[in-house]
């Protein structure tokens, strides 16, 4: 199995060292079978502890599993040896050589010390692995919190970007509407000025028409006065002379206050004047300002608008 960077390196176990205490324990075991049974039970408890530590270990255990398996195998062998020796001690009637039993007890003690050292080592390694696992979990939680914070920041940046885009679009629409509003105001101003100028022109034209109508009325009155004077003079002259046939045809012996001739009211005879013969010259219409002669009244009115 591949080792991880955080896996602690296995420590080398110290070789068993013989001492007087070990020899004393070995001698006591040969004399007291219960002590040997106690030692076997203690080894079984160590075996259970190793098994529990093996199954409760963190997920990432590579070298520790190998060492625990080796320790378990050694414990099984040691337990088998202890049981064999226990049966030998209980069933044997005579112990022929104490040194041999002492050496076997010494081997058991040495094996027990070795197993205890391995159990301590495994326990220390488990503690280190638990600490490493806790640190790794804390680091992962920190990374997750940082990732969520970065996600929130990105979300806020996206919302801010969309808001800025919407604000830019609103500003563009506002500026466009302001330009359109200014253009409409300018058009309204132009239309208002045109309307005012047209209204003034109409008022001037109406005033001019009124002036021309008044002048035309005055001209008609003047023409009427001239015709009246001419008719009265002609009538007074005809009284002192004899009657000509033409005059008898043109004038009636009866007189009235007002008569019409060519659309003008004149004072004279009650009978209207006879229509003139084609050979007689028609009366021309003249402009009162420049005295230009016109044949039609519409032409005269158009000229009067221009001349005045």
From TrEMBL:
InterPro entries: CEP55 (IPR038926), EABR (IPR022008). Its main location: cytoplasm. One of its GO terms (cellular component) is cytoplasm. One of its GO terms (biological process) is regulation of phosphatidylinositol 3-kinase/protein kinase B signal transduction. The keyword Coiled coil applies. Residues 118-144 form the TSG101 and ALIX binding domain. It is found in: Cytoplasm. Residues 167-232 form a coiled coil. Keywords: Coiled coil, Cytoplasm. This is TSG101 and ALIX binding domain-containing protein. It comes from Acanthosepion pharaonis (Pharaoh cuttlefish).
């Amino acid at each position: 199995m591949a080792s991880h960077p955080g896996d602690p390196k296995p420590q080398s176990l110290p070789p068993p060292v013989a001492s007087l205490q070990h020899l004393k324990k070995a001698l006591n075991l040969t004399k007291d079978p219960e002590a040997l049974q106690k030692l076997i039970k203690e080894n079984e408890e160590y075996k259970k502890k190793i098994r529990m530590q093996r199954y409760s270990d963190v997920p990432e255990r590579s070298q520790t599993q190998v060492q625990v398996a080796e320790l378990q195998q050694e414990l099984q062998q040691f337990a088998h040896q202890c049981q064999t020796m226990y049966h030998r001690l209980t069933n044997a009637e005579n112990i022929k050589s104490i040194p041999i039993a002492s050496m076997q007890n010494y081997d058991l003690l040495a094996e027990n010390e070795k197993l205890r050292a391995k159990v301590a080592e495994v326990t220390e390694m488990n503690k280190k692995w638990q600490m490493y696992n806790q640190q790794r979990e804390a680091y992962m939680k920190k990374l997750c919190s940082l990732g969520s914070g970065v996600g929130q920041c990105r979300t806020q940046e996206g919302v801010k970007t969309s808001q800025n885009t919407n604000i830019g679009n609103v500003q563009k629409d506002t500026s466009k509407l302001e330009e359109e509003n200014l253009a409409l105001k300018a058009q309204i101003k132009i239309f208002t000025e045109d309307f005012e100028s047209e209204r003034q022109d109409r008022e001037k034209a109406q005033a001019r028409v009124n002036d021309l109508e008044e002048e035309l009325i005055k001209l008609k009155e003047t023409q009427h006065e001239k015709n009246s004077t001419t008719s009265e003079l002609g009538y007074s002259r005809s009284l002192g002379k004899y009657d000509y046939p033409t005059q008898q045809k043109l004038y009636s012996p009866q007189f009235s206050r007002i008569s019409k001739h060519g659309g003008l009211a004149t004072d004279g005879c009650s009978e209207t004047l006879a229509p003139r013969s084609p050979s007689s010259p028609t009366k021309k219409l003249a402009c009162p300002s420049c005295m230009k002669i016109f044949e039609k009244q519409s032409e005269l009115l158009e000229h009067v608008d221009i001349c005045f």
